Amino acid sequence: MGAHSLLPFTQDRDTAGFFEAAAEGRLVFKACLDCGHALHPPTDHCPRCGGWNTAWKDAKGTGRLHTWTTVMHQIHPDFPAPYTLVVVELDETPEVRLMGRLQGEPELREGMPMEVWFEPLGEGGPVLPQWKPVEA
Amino acid sequence: MTATVIDDELAFAGRDKAAVVGIGQTAFSRDSGRSVLSLATEASLKAIADAGLTVDDIDGIVRCEQDNVRPYSLAAAIGAKNLHYWADTGPGGVAPCMMMGLAMGAVMTGQAKAVLAFRSLNGRSEMRLGGTGRHDAIEVVGGFGSYDEFYLPYGLQSAGQTFALMARRHMLEYGTTAEQLGAVAMACREHANQTPHAQMNGRPMSMDDYLASRMISTPLRMFDFCLESDGACAVVITSAERAKDLAKPPVLIRAVAGGAPQDHRPGMMFPVVSREDMTELGGRQAGAELWRRAGVGPEEMDLAQIYDCFTISVILQLEAYGFCGKGEGGPFAASGALRKGGQLPINTGGGHMSEGYVHGMNHIVQAVRQLRGEADMQIPDAELCMCTGGPLPIGSSVVFRKAA
Question: How many domains is chain B partitioned into structurally?
Answer without folding.
Answer: 1
